[in-house]
Amino acid sequence: MSNEKSIYKNTIYSILLRVFNIAVPVIVGAYPLNIFGADLMGTANYSESIYNYFMIFASFGMYNYALREISRIRNDKKKVAQMLTSFFIFGVVTHLVVAVVYFAFITVRFKGQFIYPVAILYGINMIHHLFYIEWLNEAQENYNFITIKTIVNRCIYIVLLFTLVRTKNDFLIYVFLNTLNLFLNNIISYWYIKRSIPFDFSNIEIKKHIRPLAYIAVIANADILYTQLDKVLLGASSKKGLYSSVALYNTPQLIVSLITPMILSIVAVTVPRLSNVIYEKGNEEYEKLLSKITTICFMFLFPVGIGLCLYSRETILLYARNKEFIGAINVLQIFSIYLIITGIGSVFTNQIMYVKKKETVLFKLLLVCGVLNVIFKIALSKLGTFTPVTAILTTTISNFILIVMQYIYIRTKLKMEFNIFNWEKMKYFVYSLLFIPITLLLRGLNLSTLLMAIIGVSVNGLLYMGILYFTKDSVFLTLLEKITKKAR
């Protein structure tokens, strides 16, 4: 099978996985929101944010680093087994050490409060996460296994959720089910890998990986100074242990996080391929593939981001179905802009600077913009205007500054002829702007929320695809041909 066909096949598997991961939360996501309300969901969101901070040090950038390094040598089974062993040993140490610190922290900070058992349940994830070696499946491009495993696992979760969670008294059961879902995911992946790749202790190397892992830990977890910071600060500023502001922020973030992976599937599945191409075939082939991948990404990114911004009200009302979440509408509008910015940033970070091993530079850029974001938050807190809306607004601004700095570096320092502003890529943004007048006309009809969502998305979607078809967009026509062949 050719490289091109392999990429399309992996992208289809990845998109199928993302579609399922979107469909499940859309179907069941409103269920816990309606049962528990903003305060209880905010408690879970705040606990998860604290847990995620500790997980940064436990995982230590392993996923992204191991994915890249093993992708380069994936055809040498002995080297893969040796590197797997080195990374696993390192992961066991970091996870156990950080777990001890985490449980000590939550005991001192939250013992006696309702949030304490919630934080404990999240902490259990840290123990079994040391078996999470999905990066090896991705390095070997086993997207068929990843997709099937995830679908089966999530189906089990859905059955248990609707069976065991019925009232507010079942809140801890709900949190436990989320932990169980992750546990099954990690253990199944570990079992699958170990069937074919044994540990090899003949050449353990850990020390040489620590420094690049440290850089990548920050790069891969950039949200420690961005969206994760927003939720932690919103939770810390909440009064009397009521965390509704965190839920008003987290719900739009969840919606965007469900959509983002599907749009960026082409980015995710091609990082191993780009690493391999630049290693074996050189820069010229790498840049050709990069340009093609970026064009495909933008074809989806711009219409989804602009469409989500225009239909934020309908999205929140249909997804949450709870009046307590009305305040999340404006937050989602800004998150839609954030989606576009981080989508572009994902290409710069993962497919260029990361593949070219510019972690040190990327680390510095992330740190500068992250500190700037912190300064924005402090200023808002002093002015008494730190809310979910202003939190994501300043985070969006900080990320915009970040991608501008990245682009300047790519063009001036890396000397790459990579232009995101040419018509071939930016035409998708221009076409998507046509959604605005169409949506304004439809709003004048005073349709119900559901009808507005269905008709609006349908009309805009058909218009967009029609433009691509009649302008003979090569990327769209190629994807359309691939899909129709699969359907035959």
Brief digest:
This is Heteropolysaccharide repeat-containing protein. The chain has 488 residues and is an all-alpha fold. The chain is 81% helix and 0% strand.
How would you characterize the overall build of this protein?
The protein is globular. With 488 residues, it is an all-alpha fold. Helix 2 (30-59) packs across helix 10 and helix 14 (312-320) crosses helix 15 (329-353). It has two domains: 3-433, no CATH class; 434-488, no CATH class. It is built from 21 helices and no strands.
Keywords:
mainly alpha, disordered N terminus, 488 residues
Would you spell out the secondary-structure blueprint of this structure?
Elements: H1 3-28, H2 30-59, H3 62-72, H4 77-110, H5 115-128, H6 134-139, H7 143-164, H8 171-196, H9 207-220, H10 227-236, H11 244-263, H12 265-280, H13 283-310, H14 312-320, H15 329-353, H16 359-383, H17 388-412, H18 423-432, H19 435-443, H20 449-470, H21 474-487
Helix pairs in contact: 1-7, 1-11, 1-12, 2-4, 2-5, 2-10, 2-11, 3-12, 4-5, 5-8, 7-8, 9-16, 10-11, 10-17, 11-15, 12-13, 12-15, 13-15, 13-18, 14-15, 14-20, 15-17, 16-17, 19-20
